[in-house]
Design a protein that fits this description.
- With 321 residues, the protein is mainly α.
- The protein is globular, with a radius of gyration of 21 Å.
- A hairpin with a 2-residue loop joins strand 1 and strand 2.
- Helix content is 74%, strand content 1%.
- Helix 2 packs parallel to helix 10, helix 7 runs antiparallel to helix 8 and helix 9 packs antiparallel against helix 10.
- The longest helix is centred in the N-terminal third of the chain and has 32 residues.
- It has a single domain, classed as Rhopdopsin 7-helix transmembrane proteins.
- InterPro entries: GPCR_Rhodpsn, GPCR_Rhodpsn_7TM, MRGPCRFAMILY.
- It is found in: Cell membrane.
- It holds the Pfam family 7tm_1.
- Keywords: Cell membrane, G-protein coupled receptor, Membrane, Receptor, Transducer, Transmembrane, Transmembrane helix.
C-alpha cells in the first residue's frame, strides 16, 4: 500500500527524480499497450461474439485489467505533472497528495477481482471437462453473471472496509486484511487445483485429448497471474499486516502492470499459432480462441447445449447472450 505515497514523498519538489520519471514513463508505455489490448478484447467479445459462459468471465477479467491500468496511468500523469510544475497550482498539489493513497487500494481491488474471476473461470472450465454431462444438463443459466457479480461485490466490500479503516485510523484494518488474505489464499488454491485437475483429465485420462485453444489460454492466464500478479498482492498483505514487504516495490509494480497487459497477447498468440507459425489477424485469432466448435474433439461433450446467458452482473456482465 505504501508504494505510491512513498514515491511521492521520496521524490518531491527539488529532489532528483530523474530515475523515477524514467521509471514512470516505462510504466506509462505498459499501461497504454495494455489498455489498447484489453480494449480490443472488450470490443470484439462485447459486440462481435455470442456470449457463452466463459466469455462472460473473460469480459469481466478484461474490465478489471483495463481498470487497473487506467488508474495507474492517471496517477502517473498526476505525478509527472506535480513533479514538473513543483511550485505552481498549489490547490491541485494539495488535492493530489491528499487523495493519492486511494490509488493502491483501487489497484489491489482490481488485482483481487482478477484473481476471483480467473478462479471462477478455471473452476467452471474444470467442471465442464471432468463432469461434462452434469455440467451440460444442470448448470444454472445465469451462473457466470451471478458469480461475476458476487466476486466484484465481495472484493469491493473487503477493500472498502480496509480503506475506511485506513482513512479513519480504525483498528479493524488488520482484521479485514487477515480476512482478505485468507480469501486470496483460498481462491489461489482453488484456481491451482482446478487447472491441474483439468490438465490431468485431458492429458492422462482413459481417452487422452489434446488441449483446446481456450484451455491453453486459460492455463497461461493463470500461470502469468501467479508469476506477475501474485507478488503485488503478497507485498500489499505483508505491508498491511506486518508493516513489511518481501519484494522490491518497483519490480512488483511493473510485474503487476505486465500481468494486466499480457492476457490479450496470450489470446492473440494462442489463436494465431498454427503448425508452429503465427499468422492471421487479431480478429481471426480471437475468434479461434473463443469460438467453441462442436466438431472439435476436446469440446464435443460440452460445446453444444451449454445454455447461453442473457444478463450478467458486474462491470462487464451487461447483456450476456
Amino acid at each position: 500500500m505504501g508504494h505510491v505515497r512513498g514515491s511521492c514523498q521520496r521524490w518531491g519538489c527539488g529532489d532528483s527524480f530523474d530515475l523515477y520519471v524514467v521509471f514512470f514513463l516505462v510504466c506509462m508505455v505498459i499501461c497504454v499497450f495494455g489498455m489498447v489490448g484489453n480494449g480490443i478484447v472488450l470490443c470484439f467479445l462485447g459486440f462481435q461474439m455470442k456470449r457463452n459462459p466463459f466469455i462472460v468471465y473473460i469480459l469481466n477479467l478484461a474490465v478489471a485489467d483495463c481498470s487497473m491500468l487506467l488508474v495507474y496511468f492517471l496517477f502517473i500523469l498526476g505525478f509527472l505533472k506535480t513533479s514538473i510544475i513543483c511550485y505552481g497550482l498549489d490547490i491541485f498539489l494539495i488535492f493530489f497528495f491528499n487523495y493519492v493513497h486511494t490509488v493502491p487500494f483501487l489497484c489491489h481491488f482490481f488485482v483481487l477481482s482478477s484473481l476471483g474471476l480467473l478462479t471462477a473461470l478455471s473452476t467452471e472450465r474444470s467442471v465442464s471437462v471432468i463432469f461434462p454431462i452434469w455440467y451440460r444438463c444442470h448448470r444454472p443459466k445465469h451462473l457466470s453473471g451471478i458469480v461475476s457479480g458476487v466476486l466484484w461485490a465481495s472484493v469491493g466490500s473487503f477493500m472498502l472496509s480496509i480503506y475506511l479503516c485506513y482513512v479513519f485510523r480504525q483498528r479493524y484494518g488488520t482484521l479485514f486484511g487477515s480476512l482478505i488474505t485468507v480469501y486470496s489464499v483460498i481462491l489461489s488454491l482453488l484456481m491451482l487445483i482446478s487447472n491441474v485437475s483439468m490438465v490431468i483429465r485431458l492429458r492422462c485420462g482413459s481417452q487422452r485429448r489434446s488441449l483446446g485453444k481456450l484451455y491453453v489460454a486459460v492455463v497461461l492466464n493463470v500461470i502469468f497471474f501467479f508469476a506477475f500478479g501474485m507478488p503485488f498482492s503478497v507485498n500489499a498483505f505483508l505491508l498491511l499486516l506486518h508493516n513489511d514487504i518481501f519484494f522490491n516495490e518497483e519490480m512488483v509494480l511493473v510485474l503487476a502492470l505486465l500481468n494486466s497487459s499480457i492476457n490479450p497477447v496470450i489470446y492473440f498468440l494462442v489463436g494465431s499459432c498454427r503448425q508452429r507459425r503465427f499468422h492471421g489477424s487479431i480478429k481471426v485469432a480471437l475468434r479461434r480462441v473463443f469460438e467453441e466448435k462442436a466438431r472439435s474433439k476436446e469440446e464435443s461433450p460440452v460445446s453444444e447445449g451449454i445454455p447461453m446467458e442473457s444478463t450478467a452482473q458486474g462491470p462487464a456482465g451487461q447483456g450476456e447472450a
